[in-house]
Amino acid sequence: MTFPAIPNPAATVVLVRPGRDGGVEIFMNRRPEKMETYAGAYVFPGGRVEESDRSEKMLTLVRGRSPAEAQQTLATETDPEFCLGYWVAAARELFEEAGILFYLRADGVAAAEENLSSRLAVKRRNLQQGTIDFPGLLESERLHCDVGRLTYFFHRITPEHYPVRFDTRFFLAALPQGQSPLHSSEEVAESLWITPKAALARFESGIFPMAPPTVLVLRTLAEHETWKALEMAFRMT
After folding, report:
1. Strands (E), the chain
2. Which region, left, alpha or beta, applies to residue 40 given φ > 0 means left and ψ of -120 to 50 means alpha?
3. pLDDT tens-digit readout, 146-199
4. Taken in order 195, 103, 139, 181, is the CA torsion positive or negative?
5. Is the pTM of this model over 0.85?
6. Is 9 helix (H, G, I), strand (E, B) or coil?
7. What DSSP element (H or E) covers 234?
8. What's the structural domain count of the chain?
9. 24 by DSSP, 3-state: which?
């Protein structure tokens, strides 16, 4: 008898911004053709929750949500620190794949610093290469991870017949002022901003491959035609 694979905990970020016409645009990545999972598909930034995402050291660097609040939001009996790890993983993966970092200065101010962006660009590559971990990166710049910018809104577990499964928590987040996502990176062939309806139209025409959870998220977002409607529906910060 073959038992289903155990789902890997994962987190995904749907990065959004106001469109020129008052609508909503979402940020999507196309995965390289040689990736093991969803090769060539259009996805949102995300990946597995790592041990360091819920380590004692990491949790001291998190602002915007407590472990107890994370557990309550997910409505689960899972360990509170483990729950908060989903938020951290979402923030870390967004930084690794797109170069967008949700942070606060150690003094609690979300202010930019001269040369910070260039230093973070170098350290993002170090993070990808495994020569530094996320807590170490934040400490080196005296930053805190601001997970209060992430709004939880969707949960998906890969069906049992798949050989590789994920227990994925989806988060919605507005593009922070003064930051721009990378067009490509180590795990991203290319990226684009697109409206949910346009992405769905391309998917239905067969030129925009996507996994079922991505399609479900887009259909949900497409119901909110304006930026104000989206902000109100999900209480985005």
Report:
1. 8-18, 24-30, 42-43, 46-48, 62-63, 103-105, 143-146, 151-157, 166-174, 190-194
2. left
3. 999 999 999 999 888 888 889 999 999 999 998 999 999 888 999 999 999 999
4. positive
5. yes
6. strand
7. helix 227-234
8. 1
9. strand
The residue among 71, 66, 51 whose CA lies nearest residue 8 is 51
Instruction: List all residues 6 or more positions away from 124 whose beta carbon is below 8 Å from its beta carbon.
Output: 95, 96, 99
Q: For residue 142, what are the contacts with CB-CB under 8 A and spacing of at least 6? A: 105, 106
Domain encompassing residue 194: 8-234
The half-sphere exposure of 120 on its side-chain side, counting CA atoms within 13 A, is: 25
Supply the CATH number for residue 40's domain: 3.90.79.10
Structure confidence by residue, pLDDT tens digits, 14-57: 999 999 889 999 999 999 888 777 778 999 999 999 999 999 99
Domain for residue 125, yes or no? yes
Residue 3 lies in a domain: no
Bridge partners for 46 per DSSP: 12
Residue whose pair of structure tokens reads 């346009």 in the numeric block: 198
d(CA 118, CA 115): 5
Task: Examine residue 129 and state whether it is found in any structural domain, yes or no.
Answer: yes
Specify whether the CB–CB gap between 157 and 167 falls below 8 A: yes
Does a structural domain hold residue 35? yes
CA 156 – CA 153 distance, rounded (Å): 11
Structure tokens at 133: 């971990």
CB contact at 8 A, 88 and 119: no
The DSSP result for 123-135, as a single string, is: HHHHHHHTSS-HH
Would you tell me the crossing angle of helices 80-98 and 116-129 to the nearest 10 degrees? 110
